[in-house]
Amino acid sequence: MRHDLPDTLCDLNGELLPLGQAQVSVMDRGFLFGDGVYEVIPVYGRRLFRVDDHLARLARNLGQLRIAPPHDRAGWLSRLRRLVAAQPFDDQLVYLQVTRGVAARSHEMPPGLVPTVFLMSQPFVGPSPEQRHHGVACVTARDLRWQRGDLKTVSLLGNVLARQVAADAGVAETLLLRDGEAGGPWLTEGSACNAWIVHEGALLGPRMDDGHVLEGVRVRLLRELCETLGIAFNLRPISEADLRCADEVLLSASGREVLAVTRLDGEPVGHGALRGKPGPVYARLYEAYQRAKREQSI
């Protein structure tokens, strides 16, 4: 049964066709094992935003899974732009997925497979004006996912379960906390975003070098924006106590851009007059992000 599939064109192995008609083999390893990687690329005014960062991460992840890259940069750009041009909307989120391909079911990685490549696009909606003005509520939960959170794979059941915690609570996102060798719990990320805190005017994010956190494309972008704005930036372990006493809490993701969290587990975020309200670091980063969208899309 179809569940509200959009009536748009997608790209499956180089063929443009209606999304509802796209089919892959039940023996595709992406279907059987979640053996593949993906990217979500924002498009503003039919121009791809930070696409080289997305393609670089795609190449790193394909290499980690030992999947042969189906295209070089020029090939990816050609397919992406063809799909973007085929849509009836200007601002888009393009989903790009590469699986190892079709083979008899076996846990080993069969050599010589032809990867399955799938691209689709949907309208870019982003947070509502109300969410921008008031911020969003989140909950926390234990991070029960596997140890390679740094890989952007299609094996997302742990993320699905984490997001459902937020859905059941009627809030926007679940922030994940994981124990580690140095104790904890430590903040890792959201179910589908990177998570940040602001402390004494500095933007702080969890360290990205322990394999538990995906280095989102917006991590590099926020680092650059902080440098431009004169905001201190640091990636380091963030304890649960750091999270709960933060001046501000932020989310970043392709579809959310940068967004303020103003309630966490039912309690207001922040201190003083700004308690429970989006803070000044968020406001500056949001405005800088909008400028970057105009300047860094191709």
Draw up the topology in text:
Elements (H helix, E strand, L loop, with lengths): L8 E4 L2 E4 L10 H5 L2 E9 L2 E2 L2 H15 L7 H13 L6 E8 L16 E8 L5 H6 L1 E7 L14 H13 L3 E8 L2 E8 L3 E6 L2 E4 L11 H13 L3 E3 L4 H5 L3 E6 L3 E8 L2 E2 L11 H16 L3
Parallel strand pairs: 7-8, 7-14, 11-12
Antiparallel strand pairs: 1-2, 1-6, 3-4, 3-5, 5-6, 8-9, 10-11, 10-13, 13-14, 14-15
Helix pairs in contact: 6-8
What does this structure look like?
The chain has 298 residues and is an alpha+beta fold. 29% of the residues lie in helices and 29% in strands. It has helices at residues 29-33, 51-65, 73-85, 129-134, 157-169, 217-229, 240-244, 280-295; strands spanning 9-12, 15-18, 36-44, 47-48, 92-99, 116-123, 136-142, 173-180, 183-190, 194-199, 202-205, 233-235, 248-253, 257-264, 267-268. Strands 7, 8, 9, 10, 11, 12, 13, 14 and 15 form a 9-stranded mixed beta sheet that branches. It has a 6-stranded antiparallel beta sheet with strand order 2-1-6-5-3-4. The protein is globular, with a radius of gyration of 20 Å. It starts with 8 loop residues before the first strand and ends with a helix. The mean pLDDT is 94.
Name the features.
298 residues; alpha+beta; nine-stranded mixed sheet
For the sheet with most strands, the description reads: 9 strands, mixed
Structural class of the secondary elements?
alpha+beta
Helix content bin = 25-40%
Mean pLDDT, as a whole number?
94
Instruction: Report the radius of gyration as a whole number of Å.
Output: 20 Å
Total E-strand runs: 15
Q: Cα distance, first to last residue?
A: 38 Å
Shape estimate: globular
**Unreliable stretches, pLDDT < 50, 5 or more residues?**
none
* Tally of separate helices: 8
Tell me the β content.
Answer: 25-35%
The helix/strand series, from N terminus to C terminus, equals EEHEEHHEEHEHEEEEHEHEEEH
